[in-house]
Amino acid sequence: IAQMKSELAQSQQSRTEAQAAAATAVALDTKARAAFDGQSSDLLANIDALTKAIAALERGMTGGSFLQGGVGAALRRAVMNSDKVSDSDRTSVLSFLSGGSSDGGRYAPQSGEIVGILKQLKDEMSADLSALEKEELDRKTNHQGLMKAKTVEISVLTKTIEEKTVRVGTLAVEVEKMKSELSESERTLLADKELASKLTGSCTTQASEWEE
């Protein structure tokens, strides 16, 4: 029974560890999803701003006009926060937005350069978004596989624990029964010894009387 209790304790410990691992995986998944949501939202917002800015520039909108609408602020954020833009390109875009192009801010020679910069930046951000989405998909697949494995492991351990708990209880009852039977046998044996002793004493007494 001691061995069975030891195995039961080990199964319980293994289940506790599996449950802890599953809980940790869920916490990490929640954190990773939040990070993905934030990064993908930023990229989508920047790509949207770039798309609108490129379309507006190709229609002939001037740099100053961007600032009067909602596109300019979003474009400025996209350019300022992106590590894909070189310092010189960033300076050119910001200068254009502030109306500092060579012809006073009108849709002029500099606009072609700006459109090229924005298109390249959009392509790079779109590639980043695709890579991020693939990474998230792979991560989710791995997480789901891990959780499935842990769920099966916990289920198997739970069944094992239930079976061993029943077995330990059954063995405990059997041990107590054996102890009870042993005690009864001991009492019977003691009584038999006492009876034998009395009979022996009685026979000795009778033999002595006959000899007399």
Automatic annotation (TrEMBL):
<protein>
    <submittedName>
        <fullName>Uncharacterized protein</fullName>
    </submittedName>
</protein>
